[in-house]
Amino acid sequence: MANSKLQLFQKRRLRVRNKLRKVNNGKLRLSVHRSNKNIHAQLIDDVQGITLAYASTLEKDLGVIGKNNVDAAAKVGSAIAERAKAKGVEEAYFDRGGFLYHGSIKALADAAREGGLKL
């Protein structure tokens, strides 16, 4: 019996998250979600269960409303890095979820690294 796309995505997501949990060492998690229209990034403290910083293509001040492309992802990555540095966060681990590491996901991670966030 073949797995559906959603089942394969969820298996990939859990596999990535479980591997990251093993090497966590108390670091914060930069979680990324990509839809067909938007891309979102959150800086999460799993110990306290709170979100410290958030950036998305839904925000008007980024100027990329409703776009999910490489340029928009790079702007979101820069914004999340800037907001993380404002909160005093220097280091996090990158949780790509079940998304493959290319295209907009890679652009977001690279922009966050260029912004000074160590992933």
Automatic annotation (TrEMBL):
Superkingdom to which the source organism belongs: Bacteria
Membrane-spanning residues: none
Gene Ontology MF terms in the entry: 5S rRNA binding; structural constituent of ribosome
UniProt keyword RNA-binding, yes or no: yes
Keyword Ribonucleoprotein found: yes
Assembly notes: Part of the 50S ribosomal subunit; part of the 5S rRNA/L5/L18/L25 subcomplex. Contacts the 5S and 23S rRNAs.
The protein's name: Large ribosomal subunit protein uL18
